[in-house]
Write a structure and sequence with these properties.
Layout (H helix, E strand, L loop, with lengths): L5 H4 L5 H10 L5 E2 L11 H12 L12 H15 L8 E4 L1 H13 L5 E6 L3 H9 L3 E6 L1 E3 L2 E3 L2 H7 L4 E7 L11 H14 L2 E5 L25 E6 L12 E4 L5 H11 L5 H13 L1 H23 L4 E4 L6 E6 L5 H11 L2 E2 L1 E2 L11 E4 L4 H25 L7
Parallel strand pairs: 1-13, 3-4, 3-7, 7-8, 8-9
Antiparallel strand pairs: 2-10, 5-6, 9-10, 11-12, 12-15, 14-15
Helix pairs in contact: 2-12, 3-10, 4-10, 5-6, 5-9, 11-13
The protein binds pyridoxal-5'-phosphate.
Pyridoxal-5'-phosphate binds next to helix 5.
Length: 399
């Protein structure tokens, strides 16, 4: 249709969804493509939401979320990071993605640029494009020991029209996690250049060498142009609830109120009561869930290491494994073939922008049995495919 904005019409659909759609018709497929656990939300969270629903919390509610949930977020951040964030800097949103959209709507527009540290979850970059901005991708460096931030490249990308710098730590898909000194350098860069920083911390609990990932909230003050995005989706197995929150600088409260009003008019009150339980009573669940991810991570690492043509990239957090397959350069075609031929759903690296073109992502927040079966299938697929691939391999794709 001609009336659709040019940049929207030209926008590529998510390659992850392309593969996912193919997988719908494949019986018995093991889907490791999406970033979510395969366990339902724990009962103590569901019960709190059901009780609120039964108690009649079915009306429009506060744009920035019910006061009980904002208070619970405040307590949670104080407990985790020792930072007391005032209530007027907290807004509940319809998932982390909605927080990103609201921030982009407030800060970006035609003629502006946004820098994104990649590989990155594509939806974030699309939200920037939808807001009218041009996205500049700065890739993490990759080595045998994992991913690292190229601070000089980030500084070079933050030119005159840049309004926003986005990074996720721990990141999707790489699992890269920022260090305190890198965060200090990034914060100083954004201060010096007058740029807003979006720190996406939705995987803050999914770390394997500490209780919680470093947060920019530990460094920045209320006057810093810092937006910290978080979500109930990952740490509490609540992807389908579509609930998240963000912390913003002082002076942004009215803008948050306005944009939430004109986007969703606030979230669902009864679901937010469930989220209060997640924050106040969820520590045992989070610990159990991270242990489950640790087991999944080890299974995948062991199995991929035993596959001839596969090399995994090391990571520190989130619940994804990234790997490359010798001879595979078109990851979309590869993942489409794997889903049909091997009944394993993987996410093609091309979806995640610069730095991930030849990589493949899988989510290991799944049951050990499913992961073992998925690895059996992938191994058999690659073994069966080896001979023809060796012959067909193009010079660009060759390692
Ligand atoms: C890095 C990152 N940010 C934000 C989100 C948004 O999560 P949700 O919208 O489910 O809260 C995701 C989901 O996969 C993600 O990976």
């Amino acid at each position: 249709m001609k009336l659709i904005r040019e940049e929207i019409a030209a926008m590529e659909d998510s390659p992850i969804l392309d593969v996912w759609r193919m997988g719908f018709s494949v019986p018995d497929v093991i889907g490791l493509w999406a970033g979510e656990p395969d366990i339902p939300t724990p009962p103590f969270i569901c019960d709190a939401a059901i009780a609120a629903l039964r108690a009649g919390h079915t009306f429009y509610t506060h744009n920035r979320g019910i006061p009980e949930l904002r208070a619970a977020i405040r307590r949670y951040i104080l407990r985790l990071y020792g930072q007391d964030i005032s209530d007027d800097r907290i807004a509940v949103t319809n998932a982390g993605m909605n927080a990103v959209q609201i921030i982009c709507q407030a800060l970006l527009g035609a003629g502006s640029k946004a820098v994104a540290i990649t590989p990155s979850w594509p939806n974030i970059m699309r939200a920037m494009t939808i807001s009218g901005a041009e996205v500049v991708e700065v890739a993490l460096r990759r080595s045998d020991t994992g991913w690292s931030l190229d601070l000089d490249a980030v500084a070079a990308a933050c030119g005159p029209r840049v309004k926003v710098l986005y990074l996720a730590s721990p990141a999707n898909p790489t699992g890269w996690a920022i260090t305190r000194s890198e965060a200090q350098a990034i914060l100083e860069l954004t201060r010096a250049r007058g740029i807003a920083l979006i720190s996406d911390e939705v995987y803050h609990r999914i770390v394997y060498d500490r209780a919680v990932a470093f947060s920019f909230l530990e460094l920045a003050g209320p006057g810093d142009a810092l937006f910290v995005v978080n979500s109930f989706s990952k740490s509490w197995a609540m992807t389908g609830w579509r609930l998240g929150w963000f912390i913003y600088p002082e002076g942004f409260t009215q803008t948050a109120e306005k944009l939430i009003q004109f986007n969703t008019s606030g979230g669902q009150a009864f679901l937010q009561h469930g989220a209060v339980a997640a924050l106040d009573e969820g520590e045992a669940f989070v610990a159990e869930f991270v242990e489950r991810c640790r087991v999944g991570r080890a299974i995948v690492a062991r199995r991929l290491a035993a596959m001839d043509r596969v090399r995994e990239v090391a990571s520190n957090g989130s619940f994804y494994s990234m790997f490359e397959v010798d001879g595979v350069s078109d990851t979309v075609a590869f993942c489409k073939d794997v889903v049909v031929a091997a009944r394993v759903g993987l996410a093609p690296g091309r979806a995640f922008g610069k730095g991930a073109e030849r990589l493949i992502r899988l989510c290991y927040a799944k049951s050990p049995a499913n992961l073992e079966t998925a690895m059996d299938r992938l191994e058999a697929y690659l073994a069966g495919q080896s001979a023809p691939l060796q012959r067909q391999r193009d010079p660009v794709g060759a390692k």
